[in-house]
Design brief:
By secondary structure, this protein is mainly β. It folds into two domains: about 150 residues, Jelly Rolls, CATH 2.60.120; about 70 residues, Endonuclease I-creI (Roll), CATH 3.10.28. The protein has two helices and 22 strands.
């Protein structure tokens, strides 16, 4: 078992970052992560009225996986997510899907006790999830604020304990990183801020030779989830749906017409992030039950 401390963070997923750890496929690692503001929000009076000097959504890593080569699939099993006892929610004046209604900045520190989120007198179950996970792209690095074929800031709540993600390898060693854990996040993350929180994420890492997906593919015990991202929400949904119809043809042995027809009956196209459609890239997913597509 390896452990990476949250001292080793960066704000872009980039092959230029030197690996902090080299592992063999099959290794298990616990990754310490910072919240989206690198631990600088500690009380209700700490407002998001200025950018963090280094960036947002720090990711811990990167990790070099021996034997991983371009064209391979990196397989990451999320075994466990342990949350810090407190995170934060916030509003940024003028930002988010309802930014036209948000006149001021506000922050709320939110405790989590025994898996339950306590927001004032309201309580609801926590849903720990990984916001950022990705492999280094072959070209220029990409900010941890953005999603893409490499993964990145997908903010997909299916990236929870028990899930597996398949990522394309574009550089030797994969050079993968993860961070930006949320204690809970509603689909859309409409303020730009989920329940941001520090965490420890335990994962098991493997590679599969020559099977790199076009984009991140998520598998849970019960579902397959394909992903899309684009400045336009409709295009993000279209990308996720295109990935799904291809997956259904490959795994189900279906023709395009049969897969396309079945999608309208059995596939959910859902929003992951739509903070400011048209101004900030949106993310979407398509979801199908394994009862239909084993």
């Amino acid at each position: 078992m390896y452990r990476i401390t949250r001292d080793h963070i960066h704000y872009s997923i980039d092959k230029a970052h030197a690996p902090i750890l080299e592992i063999n496929p099959g290794a298990t690692i616990t990754v310490e992560t910072y919240d989206a503001r690198t631990g600088t929000i500690q009380k209700d009076t700490d407002l998001l009225d200025h950018p963090h000097p280094d960036g947002a959504n720090p990711a811990t890593g990167p990790v070099y996986v021996r034997g991983a080569e371009p064209g391979d699939a990196l397989i990451v099993d999320i075994e466990k997510i342990d949350l810090a006892p407190e995170g934060f929610l916030a509003v940024k004046a003028g930002d988010g899907l309802l930014g036209h209604l948000a006149a001021e900045f506000a922050t709320r520190m939110v405790p989590i006790k025994d898996g339950v989120v306590h927001f004032n007198d309201l309580c609801f179950p926590a849903h720990p999830m990984v916001g950022v996970i990705g492999t280094a792209p072959a070209g220029d690095g990409i900010s941890t604020s953005f999603a893409g074929p490499h993964g990145g800031n997908m903010d997909n709540k299916y990236l929870a304990a028990g899930s597996r993600i398949y990522l394309p390898v574009a550089t030797d060693g994969a050079l993968w990183s993860l961070g930006d854990v949320h204690g809970a996040m509603g689909d859309g993350e409409i303020t730009f801020i989920g329940l941001e929180i520090c965490a420890e994420v335990t994962v098991k890492v493997a590679i599969e030779k020559g099977t790199a997906p076009n984009r991140p593919l998520i598998e849970t015990p019960t579902h397959w989830i394909t992903t899309g991202d684009h400045l336009d929400l409709g295009q993000a949904a279209r990308i996720a749906a295109t990935e799904m119809v291809e997956l259904m043809q490959i795994r189900g042995g279906l023709s395009f017409n049969d897969a396309y027809m079945l999608m309208s009956a059995a596939v959910d196209v859902q929003i992951c992030q739509c903070c400011e459609p048209g101004e900030f890239p949106t993310t979407a997913r398509a979801v199908i039950s394994k009862q239909i597509l084993p």
